[in-house]
Amino acid sequence: MIKKVVRTGLAVALPLALAACSVTDFTQDRIQYETSDSRAPLEIPPGLSSVPGSDRYAVPSRPHTVWASQQAQQGASQDASASHGSIGLLPQGDVAKIVREGNNRWIHTQLAPEMVWPVMQDFWRTVGLSLTRQDAATGIMETNWAENKAKLPQDIIRATLGRVIDMVYSTGERDQYRARVERSADGGSDIFVTHRSMVEVVKKIGGDNETTVWQPGPSDPEMEAEMLTRLTQRINQEFDPQAVKQTPAEHEAEVEKLASYQPENSVSELEHDAEGVATSIFIKEDYERAWRRLALAVDRMGFTVEDRDRSRGFFLVRYLDQEYEEQKRSEQGFWSNVFGRDTPVEAPQYVIALQRLSDTECRVHVLGPDGKADTTGVAPRILTLLSEQTK
User: Where does the signal peptide begin and end (predicted)?
Assistant: First the structure.
């Protein structure tokens, strides 16, 4: 049995809270990230690194190495003008605007990536997060894993004791964000922000014994909308001194509008061979839309991106599949026991390729790093993961 962990520390807090004279709302903000070193290490599921004991908010993450040619920032499809016909621009200032296409959202600005990159770097600091990985060549930056204290109950205990009680409260969740900037067809920038989560759960390990582990949680459209809205405001204020800052009510309404789900017909289908093995993903969209959909799926899955090229339609990624890792460790088996060393399994490279079939249809394949058929046996599982995110 697995259940989510939420630590409250009531035994310590209650006597102090009862002595309080008054209560006020602790925070009405949707996000409240901060750093602390009071978190104890936790056991992590196989395939993930241990949580560092010196950082309460660190969550396991695979090694992430990023590099790419400048070509990745350039490609512009001939379908761009056609696909923009049904895209709605949400008015949020003159410099940067949020674009919505179905349930996908991103920021568009006529500013070049070189201009918005330093603003994006500084933005994460202003919301209480730090960057652990960034590479201007790929246009990708990734934050640390952090706990959002705004998700804690705003009850009498926490409202009274504030930071003191935060030392013993825990949401049992951690958030991470990835931002990606691409050069748009007009020479400006398209900026995408995706959210990932990890959830701390209690797991039975035999008898009455329990342990805590971290497991991947769902992406939160509301948190993505929050960060997109804040980053849009930041860009507008940075490059337009006359930009009017949103009121809290306007900000809240904008986030709710962005986060709202719009029912739409599925445009992708996972294709299989005669034996039922996943072979590709069929996407019934033009190339530009399919690229955006696929790129957001890659971001949300947290794949290590080593290269990407929109004009040529590929991502070069690293991914360590759990079954593949266990297989390699079992192959090490005997000699690892003899020498007492556990050699880390290197994450293989894969090419996620987007093929244009027609003006309205595309297909996704997962190949080996040489562009030939995958030899690790993991490609069908990657396709399945991507299919869930591209529907």
Answer: 1-19
Closest CA to 169 of 38, 289, 22: 38
Strands 96-101 and 104-109: antiparallel
Would you kindly state where each structural domain of the chain is located, as residue ranges?
Answer: 1-264, 266-391
pTM confidence score: 0.76
Low-confidence ranges of the chain (pLDDT < 70): 1-28, 35-94, 154-168, 334-341
Structure tokens at 177: 């964000």
Find how far residue 191's CA is from the centre of its chain: 14
Residue 69 and residue 89: Cα distance in Å, rounded? 30
Given a contact cutoff of 8 angstroms between Cβ atoms, the answer to whether 15 and 164 are in contact is no
> Using CA atoms, how far apart are residues 51 and 39, in angstroms rounded to an integer?
9
> What class does CATH assign to 266-391?
alpha beta
H-helix or E-strand spanning residue 96: strand 96-101
**CB-based contacts of 330, cutoff 8 Å, min separation 6:** none
